[in-house]
Amino acid sequence: MAPPPAYQTQRSHSSSPSQPSGKSEVSDLKLQLRQLAGSVAPGANDSKRELFKKVISYMTVGIDVSSVFSEMVMCSATSDIVLKKMCYLYVGNYAKYNPDLALLTINFLQRDCKDQDPMIRGLALRSLCSLRVANLVEYLIGPLGSGLKDSSAYVRTVAAVGVLKLYHISAATCIEADFPAMLKHLMLNDRDAQVVANCLSALQEIWSSEASSSEVASREIDTLLSKPVIYYLLNRIREFSEWAQCLVLELVAKYVPSDTNEIFDIMNLLEDRLQHANGAVVLATIKVFMQLTLSMTDVHQQVYERIKAPLITLVSTGGPEQSYAVLSHLHLLVMRAPMLFSSDYKHFYCYYNEPTYVKKLKLEMLTAVANENNTYEIVTELCEYVANVDIPIARESIRAVGKIALQQYDVNAIVDRLLQFLEMEKDHVTAETLVLIKDLLRKYPQWSQDCIAVVGSISSKNVQEPTAKAALIWMLGEYAQDMADAPYILGSLIDNWEEEDSAEVRLHLLTATMKCFFRRPPETQKALGAALAAGIADFHQDVHDRALFYYRLLQQNISVAESVVNPPKQAVSVFADTQSGEIKDRIFDEFNSLSVVYQKPSYMFTDKEHRGPFEFSDELGNLSIGESADSVIPVERVEANDKDLLLSKSEKEESGVSGNNAVAYSTPVHDASSGPLVALDTQPVAQAPQATIAIDDLLGLSFTAPAPAASQLAPPPLKLNAKAVMDPGTFQQKWRQLPISISQAFQMAPQGVAALTTPQSLLWHMQGYSIHCIASGGQAPNFKYFFFAQKAEEPSTFLVECIINTSSCKAQIKIKADDQSSSQAFSDFFQSALSKFGTA
Description:
The chain is mostly helical. This is Beta-adaptin-like protein.
């Protein structure tokens, strides 16, 4: 029977299987699938394939085809692997959102997990583990256990990843089924390298997640970093895929060898990995080499020499994206040791067909490697880029030339070239050059005559960029005595005050006019009056405040105003770096990661939940591990003066300086016998009984009574039990029950941080003070310890979580105690003991 005309028309408009015209298409598919279910007729599988393709295409474009779920499952009873794959794809997509439908798939997936074809067994197991339905985890245990023991390497590979999926669905079920132990056995004994790699990846993720709550997991992580396991993986590294090699190398980078012979053994094993064609493998190997030799200065330098050639080869052979990633790591190394790369500067020249982001990175590297021997060649090359049609690169080139000049290399020739840039009469070149000349004059004032002669010929009307106009105005004010037209140029700019949009330019204009007035008063007086009037009426708060400030200074005393606005200046010796050394060290610690590409530590661009076991806040020193935000007490911080930092603990107690983070103030004592500090004609006012009260009230500390003397505050000495014992279970129970008494961050001595190259040494040191370690872990630059201690006179315990960051030389402690009143005394004792680590 022929379909009705309306239906024929509807079907004719549906020219693509991915664009069904209505529900009738899905209903039609459902009917056809039901007719083909269980069919063994010749060509039935081909018909099923076509129908499955339509279902998948509809699903791909977002059309709901969940109504054919039962029919798809019925049609999957076949040996055709293509149909199996499409069915598994469909089931995995809808099972997550329809748990009830997912139950229908369990039987046929479990049956397929026992199929004779290992490919079908593996695909079925992968699909079964991908259902991600918590109610169905009990059905995964049997197939996963069988899969880990399967004779096919492919099935074992899938099963290893399946264990990790099970862990994320139900961690307790995974641990109770003892799957981590089975993965560990496979990792150490399986013949297939991919199985070993998948087991290693799954174990690392599982144990890292469990480490915060399980002592067993912490010990297993230590086992992964033991010498037998590391050597076993290294000896098989050539069998692994590129991804697996990177995984193993990341693990090796965390390993701490026992002696130098072991370091050289590992480096010899990995020597050929530096010639690998894959950039990720090369970078991971370089990270291992650098981490192993950090404490060996000479060898570390030789590592730099050795890794230059592989990195430069990767930069020149890969595509622009790979080149940029490798170049970012090379840039980091160049910034740390520019002298070692100074002879390779030609490798950093820009090619015409390179993307702008690659050229910018190369310009930074050319600036870094410049020295007395290569400055002329580098500056000559950079000057060629100034005329580039790519305006951002032209700007960066001028800045690079200026940075080299500020490093005091070949200043004479560079200044001449910069002045030639002004003759090019290109707006962007003129703008960048003016900004650069201003910085050069701040460092080399002796070049003012040559520069001002050229700058004075530039019309302010031709300079439109705010930063360039501000630089020109600064030079007009700073060198007004050498520029005949300076007052008149400033006057014309003031006349156009309302047309100037940039607050920065208006601020510079106010200051420059003041400076010009002090040098050439008759010519500038009228312009200064107009500038102050316009500034006071300005809508921008900073401009208004500065104009009012200058006006009142001039009202008070012109000489004082000149000493404030235009004091004698010294040449700038060093310009501030945009990144602190601590940030750079953190980036180096995260070598072979996105931190190097972004040029910022990971905590600056990752969410807290993705920062691993060590969770950083926005400030480097504030660490939080395994605690919710509500339970963490903010770290108290007090800015200590220089004298306080140099005092020992006993000296602090004698001088009344607080040795902890509690707030304490003391006023200097004046000996009346030495005469009055200031002679006054009035009668002396009786001194307040305690000067610190007023200061504390001013700071909002709400102290209402005089602080008692230091001798009255001193608590009795804290005595601890040297033979205290506590099992891990009791520690965990107490840690969950007790609130945090004290949370503090403090600076450690560099000697103590250096001694952490052998983390176990800290445990022995603290044990000498009757403070015992129950668990430890972490990797450079972050080490985490759990300590406990017990009072000698009573069964009162103290629990401590201590996190040490070796990059910032900071320690963060959280203390929980049975007796809250003695927490501060124990905190002082703990900090005193920790401060002595490495100094003996």
